[in-house]
Amino acid sequence: MKAMTLTEYGPDAAFVETQMPRPTATPGHVVLRVKATSVNTIDMMIKDMGSDLPLSPALPAVLGMDFAGVIEELGDGVTGFSVGDEVYGCAGGLADLQGALAEFMLADSRLIARKPQSLSMREAAALPLVGITAWEALHRARVDADQTVLVQGGAGGVGHIAVQLAHHLGAHVSATGTGAEQMRVIKGFGARPIDFKTAKIDDYVAEHTGGKGFDVVFDTVGGPNMINSFGAAALNAHVATTVALSEIDLSPAHFKGLSLHVVFMLLPMLHDVNRAAHGEILNRLADLVDGGAVKPLLDDHRFALDQVGDAYARLKSGQALGKVVVEL
């Protein structure tokens, strides 16, 4: 089978077209023909940082965590799926798990689900990692109807799904971004847009929460921005983040009694712990998508498998609006 591999890591490392053996199904796993795979920030970090990240695969490496495709072979013990099923998931591209930048992929059946019927393969491949991450963050932060929720980075990959999920749960959702296009996207997904470059925290907290602060803040930006999230949170509020790889002063969180949740959705893949939970989330996301409550936002640039380097460059440029997807 054809695969795009890395033989070295680093910002200048190039993907190389390689012929590899087609995987065969093992117990509890399926072999699927990959139709599309999306590029996530963590994929880009692995490519650039390599061994500096403990989750990077050994070289030569086939990256690509998200995918949509068609099942071609079932391993022993797999139930609930049949050959020919259209599925999606996040099941490889790190540690010892081969990724989706290949014609075929071996995937743990607990990490996949039938793709939403209303989505194309390209659209479905954009959803798994960001959808599971947003779902886990809102669940851990106990988002409920009539709460005030702030999503930091509401036009981003995880953020735009979180906005839609929080809106579906009945929360009053606000989201930060910048520029007219991001403001349009955020508003279109049911949130009140806040331009972080022009709006002051005290002003939008007063306008959107009556000065009390938000019941839940989901920060997909992280790092120094966490201080802004603490500032926007209400007393005893929940703050969730996907980016906690930094040293910050927790004093503001202490004096507000905040609950801080760090979401790292790759743990089931890395440690083979509770993988079935991801399959269940994907099933529930598919129902929401087909019911019209959630829709992934895709960047309008399209890439084929042999253009994966360009796809990574597109994400790294910061110019993409929506998920970058590679089609096979």
UniProtKB/TrEMBL annotation:
<dbReference type="GO" id="GO:0016491">
    <property type="term" value="F:oxidoreductase activity"/>
</dbReference>
<dbReference type="Pfam" id="PF08240">
    <property type="entry name" value="ADH_N"/>
</dbReference>
<dbReference type="InterPro" id="IPR013154">
    <property type="entry name" value="ADH-like_N"/>
</dbReference>
<dbReference type="InterPro" id="IPR020843">
    <property type="entry name" value="ER"/>
</dbReference>
<dbReference type="InterPro" id="IPR050700">
    <property type="entry name" value="YIM1/Zinc_Alcohol_DH_Fams"/>
</dbReference>
<feature type="domain" description="Enoyl reductase (ER)">
    <location>
        <begin position="10"/>
        <end position="326"/>
    </location>
</feature>
<dbReference type="Pfam" id="PF13602">
    <property type="entry name" value="ADH_zinc_N_2"/>
</dbReference>
<dbReference type="InterPro" id="IPR036291">
    <property type="entry name" value="NAD(P)-bd_dom_sf"/>
</dbReference>
<dbReference type="InterPro" id="IPR011032">
    <property type="entry name" value="GroES-like_sf"/>
</dbReference>
<protein>
    <submittedName>
        <fullName>Alcohol dehydrogenase</fullName>
    </submittedName>
</protein>
